[in-house]
Structures are given as C-alpha cells and as structure tokens.
Amino acid sequence: MARGAWAEWNRVLYGVADRTLRQAVAFVESRQPSVEVTPVLSEGAPAAVLRAEARDAALVVVGSRHLSRRHELFNPASVALSLTAHAPCPVVVAREPEHVTQEHPYFVVGVDGSPQSAAAVDTAFEEAALRRAQLRALHVWHSPFLGAPDEHTAMRECRRVLSETVAGREATYPDVELHHEVVRGHPVQALTDASEHSLGLVVGTRGRGGFTGMLLGSVTQGVLHHARCPVISVPV
C-alpha cells in the first residue's frame, strides 16, 4: 500500500475509534453521571493494551460478542480469553444485553476447594454485598471414569469442602444471604444452568478441572462460552 493511502487509512481508523470512544463515554455518563470517566485511545493489539492497563486496575470489563463462535473461543488471539488467562485482576466478560435476572438478585460462585475458587468466593461476596444480592455457592461432583468413590462419601466430602471454603465470609458480609449447593453433574453444565438468571457467575481462572498445557482451566473456558450471564474470572 502506498504511503499516502496508508496515512489515509490510519486517519479513517483513528476517526472511527475516536467516535466510538466518545459514544461509549456519553453512554456511561448518561447511565452513571457520578462516575468519573477518562477516555484513552491507544494503538496496539487490544489484548496486549488491556493487559497493560490491568496492572493498576481493580477490574477489567469486556464484551462477549466474539465468544459465540467455537473457533474464536479457542483462538489464543481472543481478547476475552487472553485477558482471563493473564490479567492480574478480575476480568468481567459481559453477556448480551437481553439477559434477564430474577426478582431477588443473586450471584453464583463455583467452588472446588482450590486456592483459585477461594479467591473467587472472596470476590463473589464483595459483588453480592455491593449489589445487595444473594449468593449461591455451588460445588459440582463429577464422577471420574475410574476409581469412582462411593457417591454418599463423595457428596459428604463435597459438602465439607464447600463449607470450609466459604467459612468466615458471612461474618464479614452479614447482609449477604448465602446458599450452599452440592450437585452432581458436569461442572460447566451445572454452573451454566445455575447462572441462567443470575447477576453474574464467579469462577477462578484455574481450578482442579484444568488440563496441562491449556490456556485456561477447562471449566473456565466452558463457562465463558456457555454461561447466560456475565462471567467474572478471578486470578490468585
């Protein structure tokens, strides 16, 4: 491409980006006038730029438009996946605007006994308290193919892990109504079903369901693709 054509192309792209950014700022200010908004127009790969900004952020929020296609979900270039895997702060992947919550709002948090799920529980309590919502702490027992323990024993162990993981938070957040739930099934399906009408689904970026060599744990990848509400991924 000739230098003049390249310069014109950059000028057009800059204009589109600047207009989009101004529209986003106007939208936020119309919804939340008390929130201070600082627009920043950066050049570079979106995931890399957002990861750099996340170093000093409490939260990063991105949309989910590109997660609707399977090849984009497993593409390392995906902005949402890259941020979820590498950002040092929690990442919110927002769902479609037509998502409907229940009259009594609630959050769902996935618990598997790992340090990552303990961090997710902390964030879930914070979010529930901020929004005066209930919290459903969900532990899913997925029977292994080989060496499956007695179901009664396994469920009892799941309840113990769940209780120990959430212990102590109720004193810090006395206004959050907590519900413990242990269910049998596949973690992705169970969490997806539970999230259908929730304000958000909170998961750790790596739990005990991950596979070595994958960008994220398999459960985290699965809920990013299938959950019917915003997904909040929490690093340790």
Describe this entry's structure for a reader.
With 236 residues, the protein is of the alpha/beta class. The protein folds into 2 domains: 41 residues, no CATH class; 193 residues, Rossmann fold. It contains 9 helices and 7 strands. Helix 9 links the parallel strand 6 and strand 7. It is elongated, with a radius of gyration of 20 Å. It starts with a helix and ends with a strand. About 4% of the residues have low confidence.
Helix content: 40-55%
Supply the CATH class of the largest domain.
Alpha Beta
How many alpha or pi helices? 9
Query: Averaged pLDDT, please?
Result: 83
How much of the sequence lies in strands comes to: 15-25%
Q: How many E-type strands?
A: 7
Largest sheet: 7 strands, mixed
Query: Can you tell me the CATH architecture of the largest domain?
Result: 3-Layer(aba) Sandwich
> What's the SSE pattern?
HHEHHEEHEHHEHEHE
**Roughly how many Å apart are the termini?**
46 Å
CATH topology of the largest domain: Rossmann fold
Shape: elongated
- Can you list the strand order of the major beta sheet? 1-2-7-6-3-4-5
* Count of distinct structural domains: 2
**Cα-atom Rg, whole angstroms?**
20 Å
Sequence stretches where pLDDT stays below 50 over 5 or more residues: 207-215
Structural class: alpha/beta
